[in-house]
Specification:
By secondary structure, the protein is of the alpha+beta class. The chain is built from 16 helices and eleven strands. The longest helix has 35 residues.
């Protein structure tokens, strides 16, 4: 072994690498050639300047430094492998000794994954909600279809609950129109909600061409949460006529011949989504439980670097959108934070949790020799495309252009590792019924019960497999509902 390891802290090590000079010979020759091609000396063709003249003109030290720099990645990688460490950042490398013709000594300090044991999941039991679909949820989906295919007829009467009105809105404070507080040709169904308080009451009874001003609290924009005078102008009142739910309707909105078949397919779609949601909750709970019970330190430099990178990315996105963080928080319903300080604190906590999760899953994957196939990478690409609203081809091109292949393979590996961890945990729903997440397929359907043993075996941790027997070296269900229903679901 040509390297030694010194533990500086639980998360940082120092490697001392001692290499004999003969391992630099090829790199030295390459350095002479590279320098010769960059200089012009009278009497010599470019690239043909002999080494002795390069030494006289620039010094032997320049050549040696070039050769060492070219070999640093290989020397460092060999030392990492020899000492079985897992770097979590870029190393700080110094040349401490250079004995021409004899040896070169380097030191490299780097943050590493600490030594720890993953919390035991043998007796872990997780409870998730019941994956059930109510008749009301199915009816809600049907009503969405009815509204999509309903007809709007202008009427010359007072607006009523259920009517669809077209309105112009202007918000003022002290008689001054507020910034970004004007909207025209807004279509709204009275009673649907989602507007400022008092909007439904104000619109009820209004006719086309009428105006009314109410005082209410703004729910969006830079003045979110402030009270303002809101002028409402009705430009159109429309009666919404919804089609009857019958076989003709089913044939119009889906690929089914009967309403009964359409209802069955909508319920099946909702049940599949409920199973996927149930499985996602199980995965989140299992991972959170393991993270909470697995103790180790994180390198502060790793955390700080991630914080800086994430913060810069967010600030750049806000700048491109022409928004301040305060404006973003005022409009972002999915954010719990109300102030920038709360937002950054929440982000920092998420970063720490995310890094801890990644390190745990990486260790589990290595300990259990989890491998990722090309098919599994392809599935991840399809999942990213669906999530981002792009095509798999676009995601693949993005991966190639930005060198994300190794990163995405690691992401797929972590996902597979988490799947194995989940399969080792007892999962029950709120009714006490056991949930077999390993039988769940990507589209939310369940693998046949007779195949479940094979599915369990495929996702069982390698350690359990080794205990069970001597070690060896080693679809999507088609639905006929229209795609718009899947997307809505």
């Amino acid at each position: 072994m040509s390297s030694t390891l010194e533990q500086l802290s639980p998360t940082r090590v120092k490697l001392t690498i001692d290499k004999p000079f003969n391992e630099l010979e090829s790199a030295i020759k390459a350095a002479y050639k590279q320098i010769a091609e960059q200089i012009n000396i009278p009497g010599f063709r470019k690239g043909k300047v002999p080494p002795r003249l390069i030494d006289q003109r620039f010094g032997r030290g320049v050549v040696l430094q070039e050769a060492i720099n070219n070999q640093l990645p290989q020397f460092y990688a060999e030392a990492v492998s020899e000492n079985n460490i897992h770097p979590l950042g870029q190393p700080e490398i110094d040349v401490t000794e250079l004995n021409d013709g004899k040896n070169v000594v380097l030191t490299a300090e780097v943050d590493v994954r600490p030594v720890f044991e993953i919390a035991d999941t043998t007796d872990l039991k997780i409870e998730v909600p019941v994956a059930e679909v109510s008749d009301e949820e199915v009816e809600e989906r049907v009503n969405l279809l009815r509204e999509r295919f309903g007809t709007l007829t202008p009427v010359e009467r007072e607006a009523e609950t259920g009517d669809v009105v077209v309105i112009n809105l202007t918000a003022r404070q002290d008689g001054k129109v507020l910034e970004d507080a004007e909207a025209t040709d807004v279509q709204y169904k009275i009673g649907a909600g989602g507007m400022v308080e008092g909007m439904d009451e104000a619109l009820t009874g209004m006719k086309t061409g009428e105006k009314k001003t109410i005082t209410s609290t703004l729910i969006g924009g830079v003045n979110r949460g402030e009270e303002a005078e809101i002028e409402i102008e009705v430009t159109k009142v429309q009666n919404q006529e919804l089609p009857e739910v019958d076989d003709e309707f089913a044939q119009m909105v889906s690929e089914f011949d009967t309403a009964e078949q359409m209802y069955a397919d909508l319920r099946d779609n909702l049940e599949r989504m409920a199973r996927i949601g149930q499985a996602n909750q199980a995965r989140e709970q299992v991972l959170q439980n393991i993270v909470d019970r697995t103790v180790f330190e994180l390198p502060e430099a790793l955390v700080e670097n991630e914080r800086t990178t994430r913060r810069e990315n967010i600030e750049q996105q806000l700048q491109r959108a022409g928004l301040t963080l305060e404006q973003y928080l005022a409009d972002a319903e999915e954010e719990d934070a109300e102030t920038p300080e709360q937002f950054w604190e929440t982000l920092n906590n998420r970063i720490v949790e995310g890094l801890r999760s990644q390190i745990i899953l990486d260790k589990y994957a290595e300990d259990n020799e989890v491998q990722v196939s090309q098919q599994e990478l392809t599935e991840l690409i399809f999942a990213k495309a669906q999530q981002n609203g792009t095509s798999p081809e676009q995601e693949l091109q993005h991966m190639m252009e930005h060198n994300h292949a190794a990163e995405w393979m690691e992401e797929a590996r972590r996902g597979k590792a988490l799947g194995q961890l989940v399969s080792s945990v007892t999962i029950v729903d709120a009714n006490g019924e056991e949930v077999f997440v390993s039988r769940l397929q990507s589209d939310g359907t369940l693998a046949p019960a007779e195949d479940s043993d094979e599915a369990e075996k495929a996702t069982k941790p390698a350690k359990e497999e080794a205990d069970a027997k001597p070690a060896k070296k080693a679809p999507v269900k088609k639905t006929t509902a229209k795609k718009t229903d899947e997307a809505e679901a």
